[in-house]
């Protein structure tokens, strides 16, 4: 393609469209229309029927507009180029052609980080809608013309978004949607040769299996994640921590302590990152939180100290909407540890704080239920109020359908 497509521009004007109007009608950026009319790129096949309709031409006429002959000067210049040289130039031009652009990709990469930070305090249903919108946008960009480097960056963005979408679906107890998003994330990561996303996918599936009570499979997937995890990465630590939680649920206390020692060794060189609440960035505070959960599940009263450390570090305000989820989880871990120590009044208080915070997502309801059942087993007077609070939590998450 050489020379301007003046006939395409004239057809647009004759149909009553500015470049901006036509771009809006086709759901494109105006720069794409400008590139078409400059002869620098072609409309993608799926856009051509609508383009022909808007310009009031048939497909044959549209093809003629798109294959407009270059002017005489351009023809003489092209004729002076050796055929092999012209082919090389054309290949280089096509490799560099793009309908995506660095600015768009940079914005999407920043959005992924923002969503990963928002995950810790946002309602899962609200976050799910935002992620769906961005995934739809990424899917449209996949159909556009882009460089090889841009294509890989887009695959990586799509992989992270699909991974986060799967995590939110797990929180909402939507296993089929979660598995579908995990398959998509793995496929995109495989094409992008991005082992970190693949490792996070296995770790996320391990968590889903933990919430479903399939502890042996959760252990298997946490170890698969470790096999893919790049050395020194956040997922390399997270996958080991997930292994410890699975072992705790299985009841293998001897191996649990060995895993906790490994986590401590991996975390010891880390500094607290600029954005510690980023879901895919590990930091020392998360290590303490995982220590609390793992020891609580293993029935070790030492979990109390770690849970209280989390509560002290995060210093929750009275505004529970600002609590990260780790605060609610730490209260549940504290409650389990207090039950082991037979301090039931304090355990009931900690459980009540967790439930009333609104930060216990559906995937963690079972953790609250364990404490409620333990209180009921002791036939304590607080059991009735705690059971009612728990059932109200479940009703809000899963309102009855008419």
Spell out the blueprint of helices and strands.
Blueprint: H1 6-14, H2 19-25, H3 30-37, H4 48-55, H5 59-66, H6 72-79, H7 83-96, H8 102-118, H9 124-142, H10 148-171, H11 175-192, H12 195-212, H13 215-228, H14 234-250, H15 253-267, H16 284-297, H17 303-314, H18 325-340, H19 344-357, H20 365-377, H21 383-397
Helix pairs in contact: 2-3, 8-10, 9-10, 10-11, 10-12, 11-12, 12-13, 12-14, 13-14, 14-15, 14-16, 15-16, 16-17, 16-18, 17-18, 18-19, 18-20, 19-20, 19-21, 20-21
Compact summary:
This protein is mainly alpha-helical and 402 residues long.
Spans with pLDDT under 50 lasting ≥5 residues?
Answer: 70-82
Structural class: mainly alpha
Name the shape in a single word. elongated
The major β-sheet equals: none
The overall average pLDDT, rounded, is 87
Distance between the termini: 60 Å
Question: Strand fraction band?
Answer: under 5%
**Helix content bin:** over 70%
Q: Topology as H/E string? A: HHHHHHHHHHHHHHHHHHHHH
Explain how this protein is built.
The chain is mainly α. The chain folds into three domains: 6-96, 434 Repressor (Amino-terminal Domain) (Orthogonal Bundle); 100-193, no CATH class; 283-402. The protein contains 21 helices and no strands. It has helices spanning 6-14, 19-25, 30-37, 48-55, 59-66, 72-79, 83-96, 102-118, 124-142, 148-171, 175-192, 195-212, 215-228, 234-250, 253-267, 284-297, 303-314, 325-340, 344-357, 365-377, 383-397. The chain is elongated and about 85 Å long.
């Amino acid at each position: 393609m050489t020379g301007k497509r003046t006939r395409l521009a004239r057809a647009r004007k004759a149909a009553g469209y500015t470049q901006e109007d036509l771009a809006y009608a086709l759901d494109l950026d105006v720069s794409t229309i400008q590139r078409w009319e400059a002869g620098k790129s072609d409309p993608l096949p799926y856009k051509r029927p609508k383009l022909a309709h808007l310009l009031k031409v048939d497909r044959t006429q549209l093809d003629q507009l798109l294959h407009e002959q270059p002017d005489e000067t351009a023809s003489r210049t092209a004729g002076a180029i050796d055929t092999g040289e012209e082919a090389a130039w054309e290949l280089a031009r096509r490799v560099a052609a793009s309908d995506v652009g660095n600015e768009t990709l940079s914005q999407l990469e920043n959005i992924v980080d923002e969503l990963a930070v928002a995950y810790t305090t946002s309602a899962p249903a609200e976050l799910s809608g935002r992620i769906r919108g961005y995934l739809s946008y990424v899917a449209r960009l996949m159909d556009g013309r882009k460089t090889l480097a841009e294509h890989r960056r887009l695959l990586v963005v799509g992989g992270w978004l699909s991974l986060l979408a799967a995590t939110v679906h797990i929180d909402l107890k939507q296993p089929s949607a979660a598995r579908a998003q995990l398959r998509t994330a793995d496929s995109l990561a495989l094409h992008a040769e991005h082992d970190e996303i693949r490792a996070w996918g296995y770790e996320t599936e391990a968590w889903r299996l933990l919430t479903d009570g399939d502890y042996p499979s959760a252990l298997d997937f946490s170890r698969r994640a470790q096999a893919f995890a790049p050395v020194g990465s956040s997922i390399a630590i997270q996958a080991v921590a997930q292994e410890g939680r699975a072992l705790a649920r299985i009841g293998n206390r001897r191996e649990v302590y060995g895993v906790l020692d490994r986590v401590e060794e991996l975390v010891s060189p880390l500094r607290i990152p600029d954005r510690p609440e980023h879901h895919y960035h590990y930091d020392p505070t998360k290590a303490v939180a995982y220590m609390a959960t793992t020891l609580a599940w293993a029935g070790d009263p030492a979990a109390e100290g770690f849970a209280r450390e989390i509560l002290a570090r995060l210093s929750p305000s009275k505004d529970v909407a600002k609590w990260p989820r780790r605060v609610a989880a730490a209260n549940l871990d504290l409650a389990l540890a207090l039950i082991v120590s037979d301090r039931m009044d304090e355990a009931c208080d900690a459980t009540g704080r967790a439930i009333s915070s609104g930060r216990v997502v559906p995937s963690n309801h079972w953790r609250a239920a364990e404490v409620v059942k333990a209180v009921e087993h002791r036939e304590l007077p607080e059991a009735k109020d705690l059971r009612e609070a728990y059932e109200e939590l479940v009703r809000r998450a899963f309102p009855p359908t008419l």
